[in-house]
Task: structure prediction
Amino acid sequence: MSRQAHMREALHRDGFVRLPGALSPARVDSARRLAAGVLARLAADDRGAVKSNGSMANLARLPEFAGLVADPDVLGALRELGASDPRWTGGYLISKPAGGPPLFWHQDWWAWDDPVSYQPQSAQLFVMIYLTATRRENGCLRVIPGSHLRLHPLHAIAEAHSKALAAYEDPDHAAYASHEDEVAVTSQPGDLLIGDSRLIHGAYANASGAERPLITLWYAPGYSTLPAPIRARYAHSLATQEGDVRESALGDLTPLTWPQPERRLVAALLPDAPPGAAPAAWRRAPDTARLSR
Ligand SMILES: O=C(O)CCC(=O)C(=O)O
Result:
């Protein structure tokens, strides 16, 4: 089997795949420097409100990441995985400080009312770029393989993405606990971890003495094949950044109002609105009866 066929099979079967060394060291260095600059600007209160995540700095506010969003290695990896018309639908700098707690179990998908959510093909992929070497002890990714398509007991954590879970109000909550089905996904600088947005995932606590920065990017790999209401919602969200955790230090730009050089870099990747379609409903929890057993 070819490398490409292996990658596609892993993504389909497990819901994620690791591409070792896909990004150039120069790109990783630059992203690490940019991330450090953003973290220095965030207020302690902003990070405290998302203690479980560590930080949630919306890249839509940060044109300096345009080069990473449009990086040919990232887009090439998506195309190898079958992306026909990849569009960038969002991204965050999620950085776990030294001593940061675990990240709650969750999945990233948001249009669970639409039948496309229950098909094998993923409507939205995450591309995770850990900027330092990660392992269990310093807060690497953990995933439940296969949970992008199959019902899992962790789907019962209905309030994933709530303010209380993000703020780590109840450290004994099951959303932070290890699960027997979890798999630790370690990473080296330059690796891309690409996965299905429906995959249940989280992160271990960072028991080390160093910051553990991550850039998560989301792309719709086959944008023009998506139902019109989903495309309409993407286009609406791009312009409004609805639901953003608003850190005032980051300003209120959107990719549509970025300075022209950065806007030009990502222009072909931005979701456009289909004429006349009403945006799909924002639904973060699946209809569990429709997931396979
Ligand atoms: O912080 C992490 O390692 C994982 C972040 C995450 O779950 C996400 O980007 O959706």
Observations:
- The CA atoms of residues 16 and 195 lie 4 Å apart.
- The radius of gyration is 18 Å.
- Residues 94, 96, 103, 108, 141, 201, 203, 214, 216 surround 2-oxoglutaric acid (CB under 6 Å).
